Protein 1
Amino acid sequence: MITTAGVGEVTDATFTDEVLAAGGPVLVMFTADWCPSCRQLAPVLGAVAGELGDRLTIVQIDADTNPRTPVDYGVLALPTLALFRGGRTVKTLVGARSRRKLLQELADVI
């Protein structure tokens, strides 16, 4: 799993408790160790976590070692970012992006 400061890790077993039952918005990155775009996006998520950590929780889930959750949410490409609030998906983004672009895309939902 790609390790990034400020970004937690969830699994199929912990997804419900840590994401769906969370009190605030949670941004989930579906990732895999072999994914170059995921490695490119990891520091961007770390920067966003540093900026928005008081308003947004950011976690990642490895799609290879936790296959159930990506299937449940129709993840077909990596990286996929899904923003959850109140136990449901409110926004999905596919592919790597800059910090600025990611902040713009999240502004209306956090």
Protein 2
Amino acid sequence: MNTVKVVVKNVPDYGASREKNDLGYLTFDLKTDLSNLFNWNVKQLFLYLTAEYITPANELNQVVLWDKIILRGENALLDFKNMNIKYYFWDDGNGLKGHNNVTLTLSWNIIPNAGLLPNIQAIGQHSFKFPTEYTQTRV
């Protein structure tokens, strides 16, 4: 996994308050083969990409940025280029600008025909840095 474009803006989050908070934006490349996860008891996979980072206000921040469902029989060989995140990457303050260690992790839930619902984290992660200046232009 690679990050292609990374920017941060400082904009009002009207959903939570009128204060300005950091809003991160990134695009990513993702290449993986998940076909070996499918067997007779796997109905579908629920994939999700999370960002994890530490700020002075919070020891642990986790944000889901993107997700995808792959049904049995669909192509599980993924080769995505320059993908946009699906969900807003809000920080509850100003913790993204200049942050030098945000870690992306791909995880998945196996949805079986019968039995337990395991939650599996992929092997490997990707870390990136946010710029030290806010982006003023539209992304």
Protein 3
Amino acid sequence: MEGECCTSTSTRSSSETHKRKPRQHHHHQPQQQEKPYRGIRMRKWGKWVAEIREPNKRSRIWLGSYTTPIAAARAYDTAVFYLRGPSARLNFPDLIFQEDDLRDMTAASIRKKATEVGARVDALQVALHASESESNSVRIPEKPDLNKYPNPESSDEE
């Protein structure tokens, strides 16, 4: 009886490993923005995370998790740039911050640089979106502020 139980579990577990891959979820709208930038991915709960493989190593450098994909992408860019130099393929090649101390940076210092950039960009992006949504909801017609107009009477000739 006991032997039977063991064989049945072993066959079941082997068949489980050969299960077909679950089909892609077709019920929600197709998201083209799965991977808007290199080196980042989206968590189920909507945070964007970035990490990078160290060259010639199996290890990865964790580059933080961010609210906006742009911040994660900028953190990734920073790390790639410090690891691979100017030849690296970047998300935003024109935004990379060139510095002198490129050579032989440790994983820790690369992580520090990347997360600093990512955090700064994230704060900017979040503030930007906040102000955008505010200005969209409150549509005040631009009235000229009459107090600001230069008064022709009060010119230099007193």
Protein 4
Amino acid sequence: MNEVVIVEAIRTPVGKRNGALSEVRPDVLFADLLQELVKRASLEPSEVEDVIAGCVSQIGEQAGDIARIAALTAGFPIEVPGVTLDRQCGSSQQAIHFASQAIACGDMDVVIAGGVESMSRVPMFSNMKGTTFNDRLTSRFEMINQGQSAERIAEKWGLSRYDLDSYAAESHERALKATEEGRFEREMMPVTVGGDGGVLYQDEGPRPGTTVDTLGALKTVFQENGKITAGNASQISDGAAAVLLMSRKKAEALGLKPRFRVLSRAVVGSDPTLMLTGPVPATYQALQKAGLSMGDIDLFEVNEAFAPVPLFWMKETGVTHEKLNVNGGAIALGHPLGATGAKLMTSLVHELERSGGRYGLLAICEGHGMANGTVIERLEG
């Protein structure tokens, strides 16, 4: 089996709904990111053997295999193919897995894995209009929305509204601090927006002045007298991210520095009603495959789809908040669905390098009860 390494990882700033990135087509946004990725890596695009991209709402400007369209738009040779996939919120994490598997087995040596989502231009669920779940499915499972699932998780794990709002306020505080300290600068590609030459340099989501009190004033969304609000849930966002993966042998032959090794990949199915509980078994499976324990991991990224997810995950795993989502998460920074997996991987790579950590683990809950888990190792020298 070939050793799979990460050579480069970048992302756009994440734009808030109807914010600066709403002026940019998603296929163009991802194309610009592909250009920047190979430029930073000093790689000829002709070396790329596939572009694998996550995108959830594949309709309108995101239809027709956006990975291939973006590669062509980026000026990659016509011989470079592209494929787009949907594993819900973990789509671009799954893209990283598929790319790693192709490299590990020897089918390919150089693959770009990433994702893109413009939730402003292509609204969530727009690809589901006019459809319902079939009777055979609903006779077996209670199919509810993710917000209702989050309410049930909060109830099952004894999480109060104050717990959720406290976690959300901390997410904003961490994201604002990371932004002020320039922690995201190396991983970010500034994006030109509008016709006046304006440039978006930073994530638009983090809100100064977010406190438990301000969050506590918000109304619940999914359940009367419930706990989930717009303030303790992930933000609707726009953005893109991409990771350049290679076999170690190929990277060294090209004179490129392997920065991380992909140690393990896991994907699980979980209760489709509770839906958001998959990150726990995905975490344990990824650790087992890597031959590591929870204590070996320096940094964890668990997507903040809703505040109950990282909170119950910490209760189940025993991991402290000091190691989890250290620069904030989707509650503050946003959740551009198909891009989130690659975005979080990009942030994990750069933060491990900044902090000197060795091992990182990424886990993301996904619609209909699934989750991916990935373990990476920083390489010395």
